[in-house]
Amino acid sequence: MDETDLNQEKKWYYEQRAKIAITNLQKKNMNAIYASTRHEAMQSVLEMIPAGAKVGRGDSMTVDQIGIIEELAKRGQNIVIDPLERAADGLFAVPDIKDRRKLALDVFASDILLVGVNAVTLDGKLVSTDAWGNRVSATIFGAEKVIILAGANKIVAGVDQALERIHTYSAPMNAKRHALKHGREDFADLPCARTGICVDCNHPWRICRYTVIIEGSTLREKGRINVVLVGEELGI
Predict the structure, then answer these.
(1) What angle do CA 171, 177, 178 make, to 5 degrees?
(2) What is the pLDDT of residues 81-130, one digit of tens each?
(3) Fewer CB under 10 Å: which end of the chain, C or N?
(4) Cα angle 230, 92, 69; round to 5
C-alpha cells in the first residue's frame, strides 16, 4: 500500500460532494450527472449531441481537456462554432474582433452550447465570470440545450466561496494563461497576472467584468441546462 497516494480518497471525496450538488441542481429544474473520469464524461456528452446538431462553444479548459471538440470532428456529424478558436501559435484563428463577435452571436442560434463554469455550489448554483460576456450570456439564453462541464474540484460550499474562488484562483490563472499561451501582453500587465493576488482592480483589461449566478431554470425550460460533474481535477 502506498500511503502517499491519495487518489482513492480524492475519488471518494469528489463523488460524495458531486452527489449533493447533483441532487440540488436537479431540484432547480436542471439535469445533472456524475462521470468518474473524463472518458466517461466524453461518452455522456457525445450521447447528448445528436447527428446534425449545430454546436456552439464557449472558451473552456475543461472542454479542451476532455477532448470533445476533437471527437466531434472525428465523428463528422456536427458543425462546431468556436468564436475563440486558436491557431497552432496560440493566437486567434479568426483575428478580426468583428468577425469573432459575429461568430459569438451565431453561438446563440446553435442547437447545443458546450461550455464550462467557474464554480458549482453544493446547494445547486452555477457561478461564472467573463471578460467579454459571450459565455455567460449564451448560457442563460440562446442555444436550445446547454451542456456544462466541470471538474469536481470546482464544487464549493456556496456563492461566497464561488466568488472567492473566481477572484483568488480562476481569474489570475486565466489571465496568466492568456499572457503565456496566447500572446496577450495586455493581460500580462493585470495585477493578478503579475502577483497572483486580486486587488479588485479597474485595469482597462480586467477580465472579471460579467458575473452570473444561475439559481435554476424555469419549469418551462426544465432540462435545458445539463451539468456533467467529473470526478477529476479539470479546468481553471
Answers:
(1) 95
(2) 999 999 999 999 999 999 999 999 999 999 999 999 999 999 999 999 99
(3) N
(4) 35
Determine if residue 16 is left, alpha or beta; phi over 0 gives left, psi from -120 to 50 gives alpha, anything else beta. alpha
Domain ranges of the chain: 7-230
Encode pLDDT of 116-160 as tens digits: 999 999 999 999 999 999 999 999 999 999 999 999 999 999 999
Give every CB contact of residue 236 below 8 A, 6+ residues apart in sequence. 61, 118, 169, 170, 173, 174, 177
Cell of 147: 451542456
- Single-letter amino acid code for the residue at 34: Y
**Nine-digit cell string for 34:** 456524475
Instruction: Give me 119's grid cell.
Output: 464554480
pTM of the model: 0.95
